[in-house]
Design goal:
Order of helices and strands: HEHHHEHEHEHEHEEEHHHHEHEEEH
Distance between the termini: 45 Å
Number of strands: 12
Helix content: 40-55%
Strand order of the largest sheet: 2-8-7-6-5-3-4
Number of helices: 14
Length: 378
């Protein structure tokens, strides 16, 4: 063989490196300003105790098959019933990851002749699901409810007769800003559309008992919410919540669900305990909000605008400079990661500062001081 079968792959990686966008795995070191473990539950005594209790009950680590074969366990059913009550939905369905849930949702529910109108900054998993689906899709200007309304109205005027689907995140993972959910719900009602809200970064942190930012919309026949369990809940998996028909249809037609091994019953138990912990200990979220306010005050002195959430983007623009600043922070013991295209739009490379209960005000103050010096030097 004269040419390596991986020649194209090497060329692609070289191009990424030349643009300061090649990625590599790095160990977790230093103070946590990078994770999504917002309530510091992942390594908590409370969850470790719950895990030990689950093992004591004899819960299996593996499911042994897909949910439609022998993989369905009482703990899956118990979690889904609990989640439906907790989030105020008619039904829920448990997935091994948020990516899998989004992929299954968008690949399965919108039908041929429908239209998915999604926020231009929606997560990659939604895009991958839409590519597998049969509906048309178009992006709308970020957090602009009128743009969603106009797109659907033009589609209807042009003969669109299917169901419109409005897809957004309640709290955006790289910008930390919130979707105008009440306005989007009104658009959905006006056009007989379904509103899909990915609550990944709001679950556990916002709303009564950590129910998320969509809780104020109430139970609706045209609302689907996605709650990931690997962020503020400190576990793994995702819960898709909505009308019973959504659960039933995915169980029957959702290939990513039907042909995947079921999540661990032990993990289903652990997620249920995490939901209880968050509901019974609202002081966790209150402490986090206090840290957010403290960080906003300190960062304002550097000209960094508040996002209003635990996710603080510091947009640098240049890929190489972004990574130099991130490296300087990491060298001083602060785990702040640089985010580059295509995760964010070109020209908007940034530091993503995530605030969690794994740090306190002292660590925040020290990190801001190092950040100020690194930005001046880079």
């Amino acid at each position: 063989m004269t040419t390596s079968p991986f020649h194209a792959h090497r060329k692609d990686l070289a191009a990424l490196a030349a643009d300061d966008r090649r990625r590599a795995l790095a160990p977790r070191t230093g103070a946590d300003f990078a994770s999504n473990d917002y309530l510091a539950l992942a390594g908590s005594y409370a969850l470790n105790e719950a895990l030990a209790a689950g093992l004591q009950r004899g819960l299996p680590a593996g499911s042994g098959g897909s949910r439609l074969l022998r993989g369905n366990h009482d703990e899956h059913e118990a979690l889904e019933a609990h989640a439906a009550r907790h989030y105020g939905s008619e039904a829920a369905l448990f997935f091994p990851t948020g990516f899998a849930a989004n992929a299954a949702l968008f690949a399965t529910l919108p039908q041929r002749g429908d239209l998915v109108v999604h926020d231009e900054l929606i997560h990659a998993s939604a895009h991958d699901g839409m590519k597998l689906g049969r509906a048309g899709r178009v992006d709308a200007r970020h957090n602009d409810a009128q743009a969603f309304d106009d797109i659907i109205a033009r589609w209807r005027a042009g003969g669109g007769s299917g169901t419109p689907w409005i897809a957004v995140e309640s709290l955006y993972s790289m910008d930390g800003d919130r979707a105008p959910l009440a306005d989007l719900a009104a658009v959905a009602d006006r056009h007989d559309a379904v509103l899909i809200v990915d609550e990944a970064h709001a679950t556990g942190v916002y709303g009564p008992a950590g129910q998320g930012l969509a809780h104020g919309l109430g139970r609706r026949d045209n609302l689907i919410t996605l709650h990931t369990c690997g962020k503020a809940l400190g576990c793994e998996g995702a819960l898709l919540c909505g009308p019973q028909i959504v659960r039933d249809f995915i169980v029957n037609r959702g290939r990513p669900f039907i042909f995947s091994t079921a999540p661990s019953p032990l993990m289903a138990w652990l997620v249920r305990q995490a939901l209880e912990i968050v509901a019974n200990e609202p002081e966790r979220a209150a402490r986090l909000h206090g840290l957010v306010r403290h960080a906003e005050t300190r960062l304002a002195a550097l000209g960094i605008a508040p996002s209003g959430s635990q996710i603080v983007p510091v947009v640098i623009g240049d890929n190489a400079r972004t990574m130099r600043i991130a490296s300087a922070l990491q060298a001083e013991g602060f785990d702040v990661r640089g985010i580059r295209p295509p995760t964010v739009p070109h020209g908007t490379a940034r530091l993503r500062i995530a605030l969690t209960l794994n740090v306190g005000t002292r660590e925040i103050d020290a990190m801001v001081d190092v950040l100020a010096a690194a930005m001046a030097d880079a």
